[in-house]
């Protein structure tokens, strides 16, 4: 049975109540909601109402004679609606309305509500031209200038009351909801993609992962970048990142290592770490000691052997590791085509922000591929029959 939050009416996993501010307003806000919008999961009228404790939210089609709205029908009220006779927001700043009526619904629904309620339609109307496109990425709007109810209300209140930054906090639950919805849809697509993949290819037996299946906290995922110069010996460690992604509390290590060799002229641009940061990194002995303490003899997980070999050149004893690239190739039944393609083909999507150093982005992809392989591979007979 799915547990629903009684306040926001969303499943507990999608509850955005923790993001809500509680903002007092000089302007009384009255939200009139079309009935069809009440049960829209990604609607924002209720979110707007909960952000503004002094506001009113009234659902229906007939508002002109509604007993809870009779104080609304006077000259101190403005309806947020871009009608033909609407006055732009700037014209209202010298004589701010006491009440702001916000009509919640699709544009056709809002137009219908005004047509059904002549007294409401006769109230002065306020139009607003946003300075930037809306962020309603999970719902199709007619144009970029059409905003959600909460975006429009926050922007208008911010300008009417001279405090845009305070009212911008209303967008916290909205942004959280949009991001959560997009992430959920992406996970659903990935799960469906993985189900189809398993249906076509079956669940492979990857015995190398059985130890991690039993003790996931022992996985230490490593990715490293190297600096090299022709004729001056093997590459040296320049950026080392590692994590324990399967532990209850994810731990991370991120070390930029100062060069001993001359820096390769393209290294900084290729790996996304500024040259000054590279030159100012920790010395290699410090990096080796920090990694040895972080890994503590547990199971290394790498994409190929490059990171393990760089650590060996830096002074760590060469040790065994789980090669995720080889396991991914076995699962895909072909060459991986590189880390990015393998992650895509296995449904191991990651959210990597633009400008992220390459090592961190690659580490995130290796983590995601490891999780995907653990999810799809079949337990070995020993693991099924064991205690």
Structure commentary:
This protein has 387 residues and is α/β, with parallel strands linked by helices. Helices cover 38% and strands 14% of the residues. The protein has two domains: 169 residues, no CATH class; 175 residues, Ribonuclease H-like superfamily/Ribonuclease H (Nucleotidyltransferase, domain 5, 2-Layer Sandwich). A six-stranded parallel sheet has the order 2-1-5-3-6-4. Strands 9-8-7-10-11 form a five-stranded mixed sheet, with helices on both faces. Helix 12 crosses helix 14. The two termini are 32 Å apart.
Task: Provide a brief overview of the structure.
This protein is an alpha/beta fold.
Task: Summarize the topology.
Layout: E1 28-33, H1 45-51, E2 56-59, E3 77-80, E4 87-88, E5 99-104, H2 107-116, H3 118-122, E6 125-127, H4 149-160, H5 164-168, H6 171-201, H7 210-214, E7 219-227, E8 236-244, E9 251-256, H8 267-271, H9 275-279, H10 284-295, E10 299-302, H11 306-314, E11 321-323, H12 324-332, H13 339-345, H14 358-376, H15 381-385
Parallel strand pairs: 1-2, 1-5, 3-5, 3-6, 4-6, 7-10, 10-11
Antiparallel strand pairs: 7-8, 8-9
Helix pairs in contact: 12-14, 13-14
CATH-derived topology of the largest domain: Nucleotidyltransferase, domain 5
Number of strands: 11
Question: What level of helicity do the residues show?
Answer: 25-40%
What's the CATH H-level superfamily name of the largest domain? Answer: Ribonuclease H-like superfamily/Ribonuclease H
Q: In the CATH hierarchy, what is the architecture of the largest domain at level 2?
A: 2-Layer Sandwich
Characterize the overall form. Answer: elongated
Structural class: alpha/beta
How many structurally independent domains?
Answer: 2
Calculate Rg over CA atoms.
29 Å
How big a fraction of the residues is strand?
Answer: 5-15%
Query: What is the straight-line distance between the termini?
Result: 32 Å
- Output the strand order for the largest sheet: 2-1-5-3-6-4
Mean pLDDT reading: 85
Q: DSSP helix count?
A: 15
How would a textbook summarize the main sheet? 6 strands, parallel
State the CATH class of the largest domain.
Alpha Beta
Along the chain, the helix and strand elements come as EHEEEEHHEHHHHEEEHHHEHEHHHH
Query: Uncertain spans, ≥5 residues at pLDDT below 50?
Result: 380-387
